[in-house]
Amino acid sequence: MKVIVCGAGQVGFGIAKQLAAEQNDVTVIDQSPQLVQQISDSLDVRAIVGHGAHPDVLARAGAADADMLIAVTFHDEVNMIACQVGHSVFRVPTKIARIRSQSYLQPGFQDLFSQDNLPIDVIISPELEVSRAVLRRLSLPGASDILNFAEGKVAVVGVTLEEDCPIVNTPLRQLTELFPDLRSRVVGISRGGKLFVPRSEDQMIVDDEVYFAADIRDVRRTLGIFGHEEQEARRIIIVGAGNIGLSVALELERNHPGVRVKVIERQRDRAVYAADHLKRTIVLNGDGLDPELLQEAGIADTEAIVTLTNDDQANILTCVLAKREGVGRTMSLINNHTYTPLMRSLGIDAFMNPRATTVSSVLQHVRRGRIRGLQSVHDGAAEVIEAEALDTSPLVGKPLREVNLPDGILVGAIVRSGEVIIPDGTTEIMAGDRVVLFARFDQVKKVEQMFRVSLEFF
């Protein structure tokens, strides 16, 4: 596949890295010579210095025969015009744009991005995606990661095993014997920084980060079995009233009337803006790292704090201060992935990475075959993929134990006629099933092949 990526920032770099690793023909455009040089030195891609929306630059990048244009510069308007030029001048089949300003995304302006106006096939809003991730984590305390599939019927949940977890050192095959009616299955384990797909004889140990696929109705019960029975927070502090922080606060006001929220925002004009849009939420103007302001916000009685500023270090340090004050759950927005290994040791319970979220959203539309949903986990080390099984798929019509799936791929759940099936070795996949699989990054191409229409089908 020939792909043009406009923007060589963290998101553009992440997309180019993933696509290049899968042997795609990738060209990256950016106005910064430094970023272009960095991406040329690091990745096996072609990189061009120039404006991503200029026709001559797109022509040099090969837009005339490109399969996809992905515009993820820092400017919404550049991304939109790049897609317009890609459509009108070069007839690029698929155009994806990152749009950050919520003004463009309001329900009343949905026709803006139609084929007759701004012909963008896929709109990606990192702020909205991260806001939803924050709300999912608040609703399921104890989970470090929560991904929804099959219209919300299946969840893939990450959880860290503590010392008091009752099922550590237990072979996975025994979990089925201990909890025969539990509709969940362990699909991935991260240990010592390395992620693997477990076998039935493998055991989980303390400090493992475990991913399980479950019927959404059994997620809380599964978390309890893993030693996490925390209650939802009723008193929450949000640090940062940007697009993400304000979106989270508005959602909590609308749908969680029993939750008391306070927002801390450093910039006075933004604090005033947030206060004008929020009805029940108290907005404080000041620095989230100010101990006196945290005391004024009631940090001693707060059950959860969510730090959502644009400053990674401030987000991390605020969470550390909050933990010292006794806050039970801390969540942080992290843009720089180099901080990721520090999160657990600093006592931060969960974190959200907008770059990883955006890359996952883009890859969902790059993947071939009948891929219906996709999310990257563990900084891209694996992907959870939802796909529709076709008659021609090698998975269909035989027990899973006879399919001989490659190491690194595991079927976590099947949705058939609206019902969730947690499979075992005797389960047979049928044509039309929605299949949720956990796959190591190096095995993703094989998953695509399993769900691609073969020529023999015609």
Features:
458 residues; alpha/beta; globular; 25% strand; 6-stranded parallel β-sheet; 13 helices; disordered C terminus
Helix content, binned percent: 25-40%
Radius of gyration: 23 Å
Number of E strands = 22
Q: How do the strands line up in the largest sheet?
A: 3-2-1-4-5-6
| Overall pLDDT confidence | 90
Characterize the biggest β-sheet.
Answer: 6 strands, parallel
Distance between the termini: 23 Å
Strand content: 25-35%
- Point out poorly predicted stretches: 454-458
Backbone structural class: alpha/beta
Shape: globular
- How many distinct helices? 13
Structure report:
- It is a single chain.
- The protein is α/β, with parallel strands linked by helices.
- The chain has helices at 10-21, 33-42, 55-60, 76-88, 126-139, 172-178, 219-225, 243-255, 268-277, 291-296, 312-324, 354-366, 444-450; strands spanning 2-6, 25-30, 46-49, 68-71, 94-98, 122-124, 145-149, 154-160, 184-191, 194-196, 209-215, 235-239, 260-265, 282-285, 304-307, 329-333, 350-352, 371-377, 382-388, 409-416, 419-421, 434-440.
- The strands form four sheets. The chain has a six-stranded parallel beta sheet, sandwiched between helices. A six-stranded parallel beta sheet has the order 14-13-12-15-16-17, with helices on both faces. Strands 7-8-11-9-10 form a five-stranded antiparallel beta sheet.
- Helix 4 links the parallel strand 4 (68-71) and strand 5.
- The chain is globular and about 65 Å long.
- It starts with a strand and ends in an 8-residue tail after the last helix.
